Amino acid sequence: MRFAITGPLGLLALGLYAQAAVAVILAPSGAQAILWALVGLGAVFAASYLWQRWWVSAPATAIIGLIVTLLAGGQLHSPLVVTALFSALVGWWSKKRLTWPLRPAEAFLAIGVLVMVSLSLSAMLATRGAPLNTQAPQALAVLYLSTPPWEWIVVLAVLSQSRHLRLFLAENYARGNFLRHAGIGLAAGIGMLVVTAAVVSAESHGLKVHVRANNPFVFAPSLSRHRTLAQALIAGAVVVLAPLGEEALFRGVLFSSLSSRWGYAIGTVTSAAVFGLAHLDLSLLLPLGVAGLVLNELYRRTGSLVTSTVAHATLNGLAVFSALGATGVIHL
C-alpha cells in the first residue's frame, strides 16, 4: 500500500533527475550547471528515500544517467557510478530504524550520506564537456547556499527516523536562556578566532605546513573585485547558514551520539576530527579540529546549540569581515 503512493512520486522524482542531468550538460554557465546538479541530486535523494528499495532506485539512477549523458552529448566518465551509489546508500539508509542517541555506525553513516552528496555533485558536473569555473562569484554563491540545506536534510532524516525531532528542537533551541547562551557564544567566538589563528601560525611556521584558506573571500580573488549580490549571499551563507547546519549535524547529532556511546573524551576528539576532515583539506584539520573541540565543550556545558552556533557564526563573521577589509571591499 505504501509503495502504491511512494512509487509514482519516486518516478516523478527520477523524471526530474533526468531533466536536471540534461540541463547540467547544456547549461551555459557554471552556476546554472551546479544549480541543476543540486536539483538532480535532490530528486535522486527523494526517490531513493521514498522507495526504500536500493536495488530499484540505484539501477534506475545509473540507467537514466547513462542514457541522458549519451543523448545529450555529455562526457561519459566512471564517476557516473557515484550517483547510483548515492542512491543505493540513501535507499538502504532510509529503511533503518534508528535509536537515539545514535550508535556510532549510524552517526558515521549520516556523515557518509553528506560526503556522498559532494562526490555525486562532482560526478554530475563531470559529464559536462566544457570546463567549469567554480570560483566565479555566482557559482560560489550556489555552492555555499546549498550546503547547509543538505546538512539539515540529513539531520531531519536522522531525527525523524529515530523519532527524536520534537525533543531535539525543544532541548537545543529553547528560548528560556537564549540571550545568555548567545552572549556566551559571542564571547567564545572571539576567543576561538585568537586560538585558531595561533594554531594556524604554529602550523605554518613551526611545522612548515602551507595552510590553505577556507575563506571564499580569500581564495577566490573575483569576489573582492567589486560589490555584488553574490558577495552578500556568500557572506550570509558562511556567517548564518553554515553554522546553523554544521552545529546541528556535528554537535547535535554526531558529538552527542558519540559522547553518549563512547564517553566524553573519545566522543569529543573523534567528532572534532570528523568536523575537520569534513572540510576536505588536510591542512585545515588541526585548526578546525581545535575549533571543533571548543564547540563541543560549549555544547556540553550549556546543553544548547544556540551557544555553539553563535560562537561558530562569530568566528566565521570575524573571518569574513577581516578578509573583506584586507581586500578593500569594505573600509575598516
Please give a handful of descriptors for the protein shown.
single chain, 2 domains
Walk me through what this model shows:
- Helix content is 77%, strand content 0%.
- It is an all-alpha fold and 332 residues long.
- It has 2 domains: 2-132, no CATH class; 166-326, no CATH class.
- Helix 8 (178-206) packs antiparallel against helix 12, helix 8 (178-206) crosses helix 13 (305-326) and helix 10 (229-262) crosses helix 12 (285-302).
- The model has no long low-confidence stretch (mean pLDDT 90).
Structural class estimated from helices and strands? mainly alpha
**Percent helix range:** over 70%
Biggest sheet details: none
The end-to-end span amounts to 63 Å
Taking pLDDT < 50 over at least 5 consecutive residues as the criterion, the unreliable ranges are none
Query: What's the helix-strand series?
Result: HHHHHHHHHHHHH
Beta-strand percentage? under 5%
Chart the SSEs and their pairings.
Elements: H1 2-26, H2 30-51, H3 54-72, H4 80-94, H5 104-125, H6 137-161, H7 165-172, H8 178-206, H9 216-219, H10 229-262, H11 264-277, H12 285-302, H13 305-326
Helix pairs in contact: 1-2, 1-3, 2-3, 2-4, 2-5, 2-6, 3-4, 4-5, 5-6, 5-10, 6-10, 8-12, 8-13, 10-11, 10-12, 10-13, 11-12, 12-13
